[in-house]
Write a structure and sequence with these properties.
The chain is α/β, with parallel strands linked by helices and 232 residues long. It has helices at residues 11-19, 53-67, 125-138, 159-169, 178-187, 206-231, and strands at 3-8, 22-29, 32-39, 42-48, 71-80, 90-98, 121-122, 144-151, 173-175, 192-200. Bound molecules: adenine.
C-alpha cells in the first residue's frame, strides 16, 4: 500500500497524529483540510472530515479522486453496545452498516440500502488482522474486540435506542461516520478499516462519560495508528 488516507471526524481525533507528520502539504477541498505527508515513513493523507455520514462520505471521495489512496483508515471514538466492551477498549471493524437506513416501508430489511448490491460493508481482512496484532503489541493493557460497527447520524445516549440497535444489528459499537466511509470506499473499490476507541456506553451515562474518557480513548488509537503504519 503506497498511500493511506486517515480520516477522523473531529480535530481531537486527528490532531496528535497530524503533529507527528513530516513533509506536510495542506490543501483545502470541500471545506476540509487534507494534510499530505509522511508518517512512520509511509505516505499518508490525514483529514478531519467533520461529524456525520455526509461529511464522511464526501471526504472519502476526495481521498479517492484527488489522492488516489490505496486504503482508508477511519479512527475515532464510539459508544459500546456490549457489556464486555469497556470504556477505552478498541473495536476493529469486521464490517459496518448504517443503522438509520430504513426503507422497511418498501419491504426492505432495516439497514438495507435499496437497489445496492451491498449494505453491510466488509473491512479489509489483512488490515484487521494487522491492526489486531499491533494492538496486542503496543497497547497490551487495552481490551481489543473485532466485530460489527453500526453508524448513523445520531449520538446514542438512550438505553432504549441502544437496546434497539443491539437487537436489530448485533453491533459491537456505534458511531456516526464509519459506514459512510465504508460505503464510499466500497464504491471506489478501496480497502478500509474502522478503528474505534470506546468513549461511552451509548446509554443515559453517555454524555458525561464521553467528556471524561474521550482523551484516553483517543490516545490509544494514536498509538495503534502509528504502530500500524510502521508495519504496512
Ligand atoms: N461516538 C462516541 N460515542 C457515541 C455514541 N454514543 N453515539 C454515537 N456516536 C458516538
Amino acid at each position: 500500500m503506497n498511500k493511506i488516507g486517515i480520516i477522523g471526524a473531529m480535530d481531537e481525533e486527528v490532531h496528535i497524529i497530524k503533529e507527528q507528520m513530516q513533509e506536510v502539504r495542506i490543501r483545502t477541498v470541500a471545506a476540509m483540510d487534507f494534510y499530505e505527508g509522511k508518517l512512520q515513513g509511509k505516505e499518508v493523507v490525514i483529514v478531519r472530515c467533520g461529524i456525520g455520514k455526509v461529511n464522511a462520505a464526501v471526504c472519502t471521495q476526495v481521498l479517492a479522486d484527488l489522492y488516489q489512496v490505496d486504503a482508508v483508515i477511519n479512527t475515532g471514538v464510539a459508544g459500546s453496545l456490549r457489556n464486555e466492551i469497556d470504556i477505552a477498549d478498541i473495536v476493529l471493524s469486521t464490517d459496518t452498516l448504517q443503522h438509520d437506513m430504513d426503507a422497511t416501508g418498501f419491504g426492505y430489511g432495516l439497514g438495507i440500502i435499496p437497489r445496492m448490491d451491498c449494505s453491510v460493508f466488509p473491512a479489509d481482512k489483512k488490515l484487521v488482522d494487522l491492526a489486531k496484532a499491533v494492538c496486542e503489541e503496543v497497547i497490551p493493557e487495552v481490551g481489543i474486540h473485532t466485530g460489527r460497527i453500526v453508524s448513523g447520524d445520531q449520538f446514542i445516549s438512550d438505553g432504549g435506542k441502544k437496546e434497539w440497535l443491539i437487537q436489530n444489528f448485533d453491533g459491537y459499537c456505534t458511531e456516526m461516520e464509519g459506514a459512510a466511509i465504508a460505503q464510499a470506499a466500497y464504491l471506489n473499490q478501496i480497502p478500509f478499516l474502522i478503528i474505534r476507541a470506546i468513549s461511552d456506553k451509548a446509554d443515559h451515562s453517555a454524555e458525561m462519560a464521553y467528556s471524561e474518557f474521550e482523551g484516553i480513548a483517543i490516545k490509544n488509537t494514536v498509538k495503534l495508528i502509528s504502530g500500524l503504519l510502521a508495519r504496512l
